[in-house]
Design goal:
The chain is mainly alpha-helical. It has 16 helices and 2 strands. The longest helix is centred in the last third of the chain and has 36 residues.
Length: 522
C-alpha cells in the first residue's frame, strides 16, 4: 500500500511521533553528555588515564561511524523496513551504552562509542521515513519540525544529566541514562509505528561505506597522532593522513560514477547547496571543538564540579532552541544571507571572544557569551538546512538531506581531530618551560595533557606546577578558539556570497537519479 493508504488515527500518529522524538533525544543527549565525563576519563586514579588522543577518539568515533553509516542505514530500511532497522538501532545503542558504562580501558570505550554511532545512524533516517509514512502531507511538516526540535532538548539535557551522574556516581554512569529511553522507545516503536519500505529498493553500497569510513578514520588518526607525537615528519603521522586523503578522493570518484550513489558529489554543482553545506560543516567543526575544550577549561583549569559545568552550558543550549525558532521567521523576511550569514559571523566572533577567558574570568561572562553564540548557532542551522535542500529539484531532496547530515557529522569529526590536535600541540609548547627541571621520563608523562601535569604535580608535591598547567591550558585554549573562529569566518563568507540575492537559482544538478518511489507499509 502507498503512504496515502495508511489512515492511521490521530491518536496513533501522536504516539508514533512521541516515541520518534524520544529516540531522537537519545542521539542528541549522547552528542554532549560524554563531554562532562572527559575530565574524569583522564584521571589516572579514578578514570581510565586516557590520553588526549584517546579522549578525542572517544568523542570522534561516535561522529565518525554516525556519518559514514547513515547511507547504509537508509538503504537497509528501504529493503527490510524502516521500523525493523530503527529497532535494531535502538538495541545496538542500548547494548553499546552498557559496554561503554563498564569499559575497562580507553580502547573499549572508543569501540563502544563507535557502535553507539552506528546505532544513532540507524535511528535518524529511519525515523524520517516513518514520519513520512505516518503523517498525511498537510501534517507532515509540523511533525518533522517537532522531531527536529528534539535536538535542542537533547543538547540541553546532556550536560545536566551528565553533571548529576558524574558527581554522584562514576564516569560510566553517564551512559546508563540511555537504557530507560531505549526501553520506552522500543515498546513504543514496536507497538505503534508502521514499517514502511521502498517498493524500489536502493542497492547497498559496501564499497562506498568502506572507502568513506576508512578514509575519514585514517585522516583523523593521522591528525590526532600528530598532536600526540608533536612531530609531523614521522611516518606514523603523515602516512595515515595521505592514505585518508587518497581513500576519500577515491570515494568521490566511485560515487560519481555510480548509477545509484549513496553520497552524490554531483549535488555540489549547485553553488548554494555546496556553500550552505560547507558553512554548516564549518559551524559543526567549531561547535564540537569548543565543547571539547570547554569542558576541560571549566572542570580542569577552573576546578568546577561536573554538575556546575553542565549548568554553565545550559544558557548556550537554550540559546540554540531560541535561535532555531527565531531564525526561520527572520529569514522569511530578510533572507538567508542577512540572517544566517550574519549569525555565523556572530558565532565566529564568539569563538574569538574565548580569548578573554582566564582562570578567574567571571562565570557570568562565560554563560552570557554561550547564550549569544547559542542563539546565533540556532539561527544558522535550521534555516540553512532548509535552504540547501530547497535549492534542489524535488526528486533530489532526499539525497540532499542525507548529504547534509553527513557533512555536518564530518565537520564534527574533523573538529575533534584538528582542534583537539591544536590544543595538544600548543599545550605541550606552553608547558615545556615549567617542566624543564624534571627527569625525562617524568617530563614525558607530565607534558601530554593538563590533567597528567596536575597528577604529576601532586605526586611530586609541586603545587606551583598546577598553576603552570592551568595557565598553559588557557593559552592553548586561546589558540584553539582562534582556529575555530577562522574556520567559522570562512563558512560565513561562503554563506554570505552564495545567498546574497533573495532569488533561488535554477538547480544545476542531474535529476535522473533517485526518482520518487512508492513506499509500502507492513
Amino acid at each position: 500500500m502507498t503512504v496515502r493508504d495508511l489512515s492511521l488515527s490521530y491518536s496513533r500518529q501522536r504516539r508514533v511521533l512521541s516515541v520518534l522524538v524520544l529516540s531522537a533525544v537519545l542521539i542528541w543527549i549522547d552528542t554532549t553528555i560524554l563531554g562532562i565525563a572527559l575530565e574524569h576519563l583522564a584521571d589516572p586514579r579514578h578514570g581510565l588515564g586516557a590520553t588526549p588522543g584517546e579522549r578525542q577518539w572517544a568523542v570522534g568515533s561516535y561522529a565518525l561511524l554516525f556519518a559514514t553509516a547513515l547511507f547504509a542505514a537508509g538503504a537497509l530500511g528501504d529493503r527490510y523496513g524502516h521500523r525493523t532497522i530503527l529497532v535494531a538501532g535502538l538495541v545496538a545503542f542500548g547494548a553499546a551504552s552498557v559496554w561503554a558504562a563498564w569499559a575497562g580501558d580507553a580502547t573499549s570505550l572508543i569501540l563502544a562509542r563507535g557502535l553507539m554511532g552506528v546505532g544513532g545512524a540507524m535511528i535518524m533516517p529511519t525515523s524520517m521515513a516513518i514520519i513520512g509514512a505516518t503523517f498525511p502531507p498537510e501534517r507532515r511538516a509540523g511533525a518533522i519540525a517537532a522531531w527536529s526540535a528534539s535536538s535542542g532538548l537533547g543538547v540541553a539535557l546532556g550536560p545536566l544529566l551528565g553533571g548529576v551522574l558524574v558527581d554522584h556516581f562514576w564516569w560510566g554512569s553517564v551512559f546508563l541514562v540511555n537504557l530507560p529511553i531505549v526501553a520506552v522507545g522500543l515498546v513504543g516503536i514496536i507497538g505503534y509505528a508502521p514499517n514502511p519500505r521502498a517498493a524500489k529498493r536502493r542497492r547497498p553500497d559496501p564499497l562506498g561505506l568502506v572507502l568513506s569510513t576508512a578514509g575519514l578514520a585514517a585522516l583523523a588518526y593521522g591528525l590526532i597522532e600528530g598532536g600526540q607525537a608533536a612531530d609531523w615528519a614521522r611516518v606514523e603521522v603523515w602516512a595515515p593522513i595521505a592514505v585518508g586523503v587518497v581513500l576519500l578522493a577515491l570515494f568521490v570518484v566511485v560515487e560519481r560514477r555510480s548509477p545509484e550513489p549513496s553520497f552524490d558529489p554531483r549535488l555540489f554543482r549547485n553553488s548554494r547547496f555546496a556553500a550552505g553545506n560547507l558553512a554548516l560543516g564549518a559551524l559543526f567543526f567549531g561547535i564540537t571543538g569548543q565543547m571539547f575544550y570547554g569542558n576541560f577549561y571549566l572542570q580542569g583549569a577552573r576546578g568546577m564540579s561536573a554538575l556546575d559545568t553542565g549548568l554553565a552550558f545550559v544558557p548556550g543550549a537554550l540559546g540554540v532552541v531560541v535561535g532555531s525558532g527565531l531564525g526561520p521567521r527572520l529569514v522569511k523576511r530578510y533572507g538567508l544571507a542577512a540572517v544566517s550569514g550574519t549569525a555565523l559571523l556572530v558565532v565566529a566572533a564568539s569563538f574569538a571572544a574565548n580569548l578573554t577567558f582566564g582562570v578567574d574570568t567571571p562565570l557570568a561572562w562565560f554563560c552570557t557569551l554561550g547564550a549569544i553564540s547559542g542563539v546565533a548557532m540556532g539561527a544558522v542551522i535550521a534555516p540553512t538546512v532548509a535552504a540547501v535542500v530547497a535549492v534542489l529539484p524535488v526528486d533530489r531532496m532526499g539525497a540532499g538531506s542525507a548529504v547534509n547530515n553527513t557533512v555536518r557529522q564530518v565537520g564534527s569529526v574533523l573538529g575533534i581531530a584538528v582542534l583537539g590536535t591544536v590544543l595538544s600541540v600548543t599545550y605541550r609548547d606552553r608547558i615545556a618551560p615549567a617542566l624543564g627541571g624534571l627527569p625525562p621520563e617524568t617530563r614525558t608523562a607530565a607534558e601530554s595533557s593538563a590533567e597528567h601535569t596536575r597528577y604529576m604535580a601532586g605526586a611530586l608535591g609541586q603545587p606551583d606546577l598546577v598553576a603552570a598547567a592551568d595557565r598553559a591550558f588557557v593559552e592553548a585554549m586561546h589558540v584553539t578558539a582562534l582556529s575555530a573562529a577562522l574556520v567559522a569566518l570562512a563558512g560565513a563568507v561562503l554563506l554570505l556570497r552564495a545567498f546574497r540575492t533573495r532569488g533561488t537559482p535554477t538547480p544545476s544538478v542531474p535529476t535522473e537519479l533517485d526518482r520518487p518511489t512508492t513506499v509500502a507499509a507492513h
